[in-house]
């Protein structure tokens, strides 16, 4: 089975990034694809996601029609992303309003694990999930040929949510689930709230830690030594992690917790936020026991006296990253200043650096690194040192990033979703439905910056570098610059000057007043179109 493999070039709306951006890209097109995840294994690149409508197409190969309103897909690509080795669909006969989804949650030598939610009758190969009502959670193990080895489900009469999964060093599986009401896992009864399920590698349930959490949903989990670290979000003003009670000003706040391998709490921490809506998306632990968390927040965020504030008011979301020691003490807290941004994925790549991935609109600033989006949806990939210093950022338009994996050569493999359309090597591909999925390999971020140039939607500026006086050429999609607004930002993202063009000149002259030597970002807007470029003043 051959994939649609195409070279994806990043456009000229970026400032301060390294040379090449994205290599091979595979588009997965259906009617409502979303939340595709990727993971690296010794057998190749694994991927999983969901699709809606009558089917999904990957490089000209059509999957089975969905059994309900949407189904899930899983597959394996070779290391170079040049071929899909196999792909298959899974899913149940879900009812209206119940959306099935899944993600890759863990990898072992003999297979990989998929966690997700389903609605209605659900079977994979010879394995049948128990349907309890509403939306139920499942955990399944597959071999690297795509065969299902076992399938487990849990839930009650209402909607239940799957949680993170980790493999312990003694070959046990730990699976977190959040239930809206009482239900069962195998023959074991569970009550409303969070609980921790322990299984062996054959899928046998060994133990269930009921009332593991109350009014808390964990999104990410990591293991280091004999301890489990987890991050997530409260579901109410008052929440609990075993005997540890959290009382906060908002029903949705970010939490970080540590427990032993049996689920017994050791410590728990609730971030103090200025407004509801914060979410700790992903968590990783390094060899020293330091904990790294990425997510999003509104208004403000405080951890152990360190604080950050939203860039554009309390109604908007900013992305954050944070580091804690093994005792939960915050060591630093950083934000990506934006009009709107969310952090979805985090992964370690070396002993000294890590990546985060997410999406933003309009503007995104990490330290001295700045991005400007030509539209409402733009993916970002950013690399940081363990001290929280941003090495560099990469964007591309048309979508949001979900997950990151590091391939055998240390290059980031990214996945996400795009809406409406995405440009690939000058060719625009339109979405088939509410959103389509993509998988691609990014170049490593080294912090080496490009000179200003025109790529795709970029802005042609000349002379560049200059003394503060320069010309701007009318971008190809426009017939004139009359009425266009040009905004100039300095290297810290502060507004310097604004201009409104009042003539039809093909290349009008622009003069900055009292321009100091340095780098500037230019943003040109007209009739809903946005073009960007970088200016160097000597």
Question: Could you characterize what this model shows?
Answer:
The protein has 538 residues and is an all-beta fold. The chain has a domain at 461-537: Immunoglobulin-like (Sandwich). The protein has no helices and 48 strands. Strands 2, 28, 29, 30, 31, 32, 33, 34, 35 and 36 form a 10-stranded antiparallel beta sheet that branches. The radius of gyration is 24 Å and the shape is globular. Residues 1-23 and 448-457 have low confidence and may be disordered.
Category by helix and strand content? mainly beta
Specify the CATH architecture of the domain at 461-537: Sandwich
**Level of helix content?**
under 10%
Number of strands: 48
Radius of gyration: 24 Å
- What general outline do the C-alpha atoms trace? globular
CATH top level of the domain at 461-537?
Mainly Beta
Using the coordinates shown, work out and report the CATH topology of the domain at 461-537. Immunoglobulin-like
Mean pLDDT comes to: 79
Distance between the termini: 54 Å
Largest sheet: 10 strands, antiparallel
| Number of separate helices | 0
Low-confidence runs (pLDDT<50, min 5 residues)? Answer: 1-23, 448-457
What fraction of residues sit in β-strands?
over 45%
């Amino acid at each position: 089975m051959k994939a649609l493999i195409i070279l994806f070039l990043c456009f000229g709306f970026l400032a301060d990034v390294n040379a090449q951006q994205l290599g091979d890209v595979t588009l997965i097109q259906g009617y409502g694809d979303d939340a595709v995840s990727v993971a690296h294994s010794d057998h190749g690149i694994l991927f999983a996601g969901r699709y809606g409508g009558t089917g999904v197409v990957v490089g000209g190969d059509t999957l089975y029609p969905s059994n309900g309103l949407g189904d899930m897909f899983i597959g394996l690509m070779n290391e170079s992303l040049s071929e899909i080795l196999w792909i298959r669909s899974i899913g149940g006969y879900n009812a209206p309003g119940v959306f099935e989804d899944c993600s890759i949650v863990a990898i072992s030598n003999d297979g990989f694990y998929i966690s997700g939610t389903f609605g209605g009758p659900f079977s994979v190969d010879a394995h049948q999930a128990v349907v309890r009502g509403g939306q139920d959670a499942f955990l399944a193990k597959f071999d690297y040929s795509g065969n299902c080895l076992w399938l487990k489900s849990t839930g009650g009469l209402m909607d239940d949510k799957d949680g993170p999964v980790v493999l312990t060093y003694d070959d046990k599986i730990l699976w977190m689930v959040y239930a809206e009401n009482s239900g069962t896992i195998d023959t074991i009864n569970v009550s409303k709230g969070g609980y921790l399920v322990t299984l062996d590698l054959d899928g046998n349930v060994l133990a269930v830690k009921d009332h593991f959490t109350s009014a808390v949903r964990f999104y990410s989990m990591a293991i280091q030594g004999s301890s489990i670290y987890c991050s997530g979000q409260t579901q109410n003003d008052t929440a609990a992690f075993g005997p540890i009670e959290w009382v906060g000003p908002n029903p949705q706040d970010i939490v970080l917790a540590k427990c032993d391998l049996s689920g017994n709490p050791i410590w728990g921490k609730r971030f103090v936020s200025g407004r509801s809506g914060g979410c700790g998306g992903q968590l990783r632990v390094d060899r020293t026991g330091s904990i790294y968390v990425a997510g999003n927040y509104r208004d403000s965020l405080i951890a152990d006296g360190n604080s950050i504030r939203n860039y554009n008011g309390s109604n908007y979301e900013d992305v954050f990253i944070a580091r804690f020691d093994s005792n939960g003490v915050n060591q630093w807290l950083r934000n990506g200043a934006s009009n709107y941004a969310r952090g979805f994925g985090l992964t370690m790549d070396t002993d000294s650096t890590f990546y985060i991935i997410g999406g933003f609109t309009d503007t995104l600033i990490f330290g001295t690194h700045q991005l400007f989006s030509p539209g409402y949806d733009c993916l970002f990939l950013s690399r940081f040192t363990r001290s929280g210093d941003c090495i560099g950022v990469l964007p591309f338009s048309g979508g949001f990033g979900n997950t990151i994996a590091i391939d055998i050569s240390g290059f980031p493999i990214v996945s996400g979703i795009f809406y409406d359309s995405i440009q690939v090597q000058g060719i625009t591909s339109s979405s088939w439905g509410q959103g389509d999925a993509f998988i691609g390999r990014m170049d490593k971020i080294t912090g080496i910056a490009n000179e200003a140039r025109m790529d795709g939607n970029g802005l042609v500026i000349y002379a560049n570098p200059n003394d503060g006086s320069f010309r701007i050429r009318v971008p190809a999609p426009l017939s004139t610059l009359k009425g266009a607004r040009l905004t100039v930002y300095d290297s810290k993202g502060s507004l310097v000057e604004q201009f409104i063009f009042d003539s039809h000149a093909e290349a009008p002259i622009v003069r900055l007043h009292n321009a100091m030597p340095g780098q500037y970002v230019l943003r040109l807007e007209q009739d809903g179109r946005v073009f960007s470029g970088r200016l160097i003043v000597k």
